[in-house]
């Protein structure tokens, strides 16, 4: 009887184990990151050509702070499709329809840090869609 209880307990506990996949694998490939453009640098995004023009707002929570609001980043950008050109405001990670296509400002680097001012020339922006 004791061995039957021990066996049942071992089977139940074996069901509680969790296997964690290895962090690295020979054939694993990192997800592609969007190419990054600085101010006044054109970047092709699908059929669109996007040019970051000016930073409207960067109230993102600094990476070395605890915030009650994550903040946001808003970028003014020129978006061109063939001969159609518009200047639009893009908010980080919010899709926007431009020229009948959807574009998203996916990344903005560097991350903000408390007490550190980011020089305009250090910003890089990555987009998806187009």
List the helices and strands and how they pair.
Elements: H1 2-14, E1 36-37, E2 43-45, E3 48-58, E4 73-81, E5 84-91, E6 96-98, E7 101-109, E8 124-129
Antiparallel strand pairs: 1-8, 2-3, 3-4, 4-5, 6-7, 7-8
Question: What does this 3D model show about the protein?
Answer:
- The chain is mostly beta strands and 130 residues long.
- It has one domain (36-129).
- It contains one helix and eight strands; from the N terminus they run H-E-E-E-E-E-E-E-E.
- The chain starts with a helix and ends with a strand.
- Mean pLDDT is 83; it is low at 7-26.
List its traits.
10% helix; four-stranded antiparallel sheet; 130 residues; mainly beta; 1 helix; Lipoprotein
Q: Which sheet architecture does the biggest sheet show? A: 4 strands, antiparallel
Please indicate the count of domains: 1
What is the arithmetic mean of pLDDT?
A: 83
- Widest sheet: strand ordering: 1-8-7-6
How many beta-strand elements?
8
Number of DSSP helices? 1
Poorly predicted ranges: 7-26
Helix content: 10-25%
